[in-house]
Structure formats: structure tokens, C-alpha cells
Amino acid sequence: MNIYLSESQFKYEIEKLCRIFLPFEKFSFVADEKSAQILCILKRTGRKVTLSAELSLFSEHAALKESTEETNLKELERRTAALLYRCFEKITGYRSPWGILTGVRPAKLFASQCKILGDDGARRYFRERLLVSQSKIDLLNTTANSEKAIIDLSKKRSVSVYIGIPFCPSRCSYCSFVSHSVEHAKKLIPKYVALLCREIEETAEIAKKLDLQIETVYIGGGTPTTLSGEQLSAVMGAVNAHFKLQNLREFTVEAGRPDTVTEERLLSILQGGATRISINPQTMNDRVLRAVGRRHAAKDTVKAMQLARRLGFSNINMDLIAGLPEDTIESFQQSLEEVLKLSPESVTVHTLCLKRSAKLSVDGCREVLKQGEEAEKMVDHAKNTLIEAGIFPYYMYRQSKMVGNLENVGYAKPGFEGLYNVYIMDETHTILACGASAVTKLKDPISGAIERIYNFKYPYEYCNRFEEQLKRKERIEKFYAELHGRY
Asked: What global pTM score does this model have?
């Protein structure tokens, strides 16, 4: 699909807006207005600026125009995006609950606007300028307030630690993370674990030298419980042996898929000092589980939760995904009811991220939008039900190509919020990351600037080029030395 823009600076935002309605369409930016199906034109006549947007889709045409004396280019970009959004809305009949907002961290943006405009002003800005629905504004307000209480715990030298285990029993159809099935990577795991423990030790030495305060530790994946109990003990033992953890507030391990949860592994996690785990059914409907390639059944989730409780875990998160293939609003509601019977301390409701397929181009647009409307009903039901059960939203984030342009939201009983989830999404402080595909994020506490150090993406690269990767971590000390010199 061809797009014509008179202002090339608008390219990034306009393309992201188009992907709300056409997530997998191939867009080309052209210099000829006549060959474009999407046109966004800005014309200046003296102090007057005329903005126009046109869209041709499904053999229908929509065009909107407005005039202003505005000179700020970002504001002109926003207005142009709003015009194009309304053209899409007119032709498709679909209204995104997030309006023209496409960013990953909406609660962070909302909090910043509250500081500038006040609470009422921020609400008005999101409603009138970004076209966000009242329901999402209310969710933002609650979430931003919850996040603030957690963000305020972080101090100038606070950091968190992330450790990646990029292996899974099998690959789910919806997965977009870097992970390898055990069948293909089993021989690599012992070497990976040994090198990961080395990286943990080296990273911890840097943290101690810089007197950094470890607030949270998070072991994620993949599925960390793909490792044996012995291997989990080795990784967690390295964390405890080398990092200074006297200020630690939270230690999370993703126990993940119920089919990997065993007594041996849970005991290793418990004895390793974990204060919080996740057991993630994604759905409690066996038919949907089969459709997405999960090898467990709903009864396995129940058994895993019962085992974890019997062993003494008192802070457990469970994940659900809205919009999964073959799921319905009724079966999603049933899944949520079954999860609540297990009394988790927190529930994270994700929205499915669409994966590319031929039917998801322009011709499949209406089907995708209908899928989004169904997923919206699911997440709205989850929000209302969880809040009624005393489980409240405390963090959120969004991803590209999410069904319905929706969101992922973490809900928790008061006092059981996942601190790391807030810190990573808000970019509150430095994250020291170990493992394949892990990204260390160095945060300047004054300017807010983020510098990234990338580990190699795949486990075989991580193992084969380990020394080269370890050398990159030397940048951490230099970063903090430069901070000390500036401030």
C-alpha cells in the first residue's frame, strides 16, 4: 500500500498508526500523490496551515481537512494522525480504545503529562488529543498511581538484575521471544548454564565495585524450569554467592509452563531464595491449549499450583492471554474463573501479538479488526472481574501488532505487586542483564538517558563468543565513572 506524505518527518508515526488497522500490510512511501492510497498533506499559506488526510480502502474513500495557525511540528503531526485515524474509522467502522496512541509505555506518558498539566489536564489531553477511550484513561490513572509508589522505592544507585534462560519444552505458536526447544538445544544447556554462572559472577563483581544496590532479581525466559533442579540451584546459587543482596526487595523466577513444574525444581527455586514465582496457564481451555501448541492440560496447572502451595510459595503470579486462536469470550471468562479459584496473588492479562500470515493483509483486515473487538471484550471483562475480586492493576505495557491495539496489564492483591515488572517497563533504573538475548540498560539518573549493552541473541552465539560478550560488560564501570565525573 502506497503512502504519500508532504512532511517526511511524519513517516514513523503515520506508519505506526496505519498498522493499528493494517498490521501486516507492506507500506511504501512514494513521491507521487496519484499512486498513493493514503495521503497526508500539509500546506502553508502565510500563517495559515491546512492539514488533510485521504484514505482509499475496500473501494471506499474518506477525506478530512482542517486549518490552523499552529507552528509546532509535533502538534501538526498529531493533528494529521488524528485526521487519518478518523478516515480509517469511517471506512472500517472500528474505533481503537487507545485512539492514535501507539507507544509501549502509556502509563509513563500519562504520569509525565500529569506533572505538566495536572491530573485533569492529562485526562483531557489523552481524551481530546490522543482520542483514548474513557475506560483506558481510567485504567491509566489507576496504573500510574500504583507504579509511582513502586518507582519511589528506587534510589540513585538502585539497580535490578535480569537473568535469561532461553529454552522451552516446545515453542508455542504465538511466541515472539528468543527461545529454543529442549529437543534442539538439550546438549547446549550444560555449557550455557556454566557460562551463565560465570557471567553472573563477573557482573556481580562490577556491581560490588560500584556499590550498586540490588533491588530486584528476575529469572525469565523462555522457561527457566526447563533447567533441571540441579541447574536451577547452580544459577540461583551464583546469584546468592556473588551479588550483595542485603537490600533485595524481590526475587522472581518464572516457573512458567505447568508441564515443567516438578517438586525438585520448585524446591531448588525455594531454597535459592525466590520470593515470587509465575505459573502460567495462558488459558484453562484444553482445546485452546492444543491449538497454540501447549503440551499441558488445565488439570496440570491446578496440580502445579497445589504443589507450589504445599511447598510454601506464598506469592504466585498466573498469566492469561486474550485473543488466542479458537478461544471465545465465554471460554476466556471460564479460564479467568478457574484461575481465581486457585487464589493467585497476581494475575497478568496479556493480549495476543499477531504473527504474520497471508490472510492478515488488506483483504483480511476486517477479520483482524473483529478479532480485536472480541479481545477487547475479554480484557474489559478481566479488568472488571479482577478489580471486583480485590486484585488491582499495577503496571502495563503495549507491543506492536497486538490484537485490537490493546495492552498487557499486571493485576495484584495489595502488597504483592511485581516490582521488577514496573522497574523494567518504566525504565526506572539500571538493569544488569545476563544470558543469551539479554540487554543491560544503563540509566542516567539525572538526564534519564538509557545506554544499552546487548548480549548475543542465540544460545550458541552466547557460548561460542562468550569472552567477547563479557568484554562488553566493561562498559558498565566506564558509564558510572562518567556519571561521577558529570555529577
From this structure: 0.93
